[in-house]
Write a structure and sequence with these properties.
heterodimer; A: mainly beta; six-stranded mixed β-sheet; four-stranded antiparallel β-sheet; 0% helix; globular; B: 114 residues; mainly beta; seven-stranded mixed β-sheet
Chain lengths: 114, 114
């Protein structure tokens, strides 16, 4: 079974500052890793994914994440945030070779202030 | 860009009533999923569906719930005898195949049980 821990429930940050949203996972098998974003009153939108290859993956809206197998982490970063990045961010894993079932973390609310 | 469409966007029902939530997955997708998100909580897997049968279900998905693909395009979630704690946002998702495939989520159906 897999589990995902998002260490910060809320992250306040000022506009144009860098941000890191932390994600750690636990799994007995190999996994794929994802970050989804949920804007207020909207559905889930894929930000980026790690399937294989380079451990640094780039996504939409200037976000990137780095897969660290030894630390079982997949932290999300952005060098300069905008007000429009205010949203809930979910880290998720799925088992390689499985039916793409996603296991989500509890989410991190990113609040960008002017 | 192809979308997963969910109806209704919001449904209010009385406790004990039956509810059907409808989803139209992306046309060439073969794997279908329902997730739910209770207000303020994480997104939870309910069920996955492939080749006209359930491939996996969570412990949340008990006899109160059922899924169906009645006509080759719709994918429905039926909740019998709704309870207050069934109030949540329900997300449908689909993907093309197994393996390293990304789920595309619908915008969700908010269910309010009074």
């Amino acid at each position: 079974a897999q589990s995902v821990t998002q260490l910060d429930s809320q992250v306040p940050v000022f506009e144009e500052a860098p941000v890191e949203l932390r994600c750690n996972y636990s799994s007995s098998v190999s996994v794929y890793l994802f970050w989804y974003v949920q804007y207020p009153n909207q559905g889930l939108q894929l930000l980026l994914k790690y399937l294989s290859g380079s451990t640094l993956v780039k996504g939409i809206n200037g976000f990137e994440a780095e897969f660290n197998k030894s630390q079982t982490s997949f932290h999300l970063r952005k060098p300069s945030v905008h007000i429009s990045d205010t949203a809930e961010y979910f880290c998720a894993v799925s088992e390689k070779g499985g039916y793409n079932k996603l296991i989500f973390g509890a989410g991190t609310r990113l609040a960008v202030h002017p | 860009e192809p979308e997963v469409t969910q109806t209704p966007s919001h449904q209010v029902t009385q406790m004990g009533q039956e509810v059907i939530l409808r989803c139209v997955p992306i046309s060439n997708h073969l794997y279908f999923y329902w997730y739910r998100q209770i207000l303020g909580q994480k997104v939870e897997f309910l069920v996955s569906f492939y080749n006209n049968e359930i491939s996996e279900k969570s412990e949340i998905f008990d006899d109160q719930f059922s899924v169906e693909r009645p006509d080759g395009s719709n994918f429905t979630l039926k909740i019998r005898s709704t309870k207050l704690e069934d109030s949540a946002m329900y997300f449908c998702a689909s993907t093309e195949g197994s393996g390293a495939n990304v789920l595309t989520f619908g915008a969700g159906s908010r269910l309010t049980v009074l």
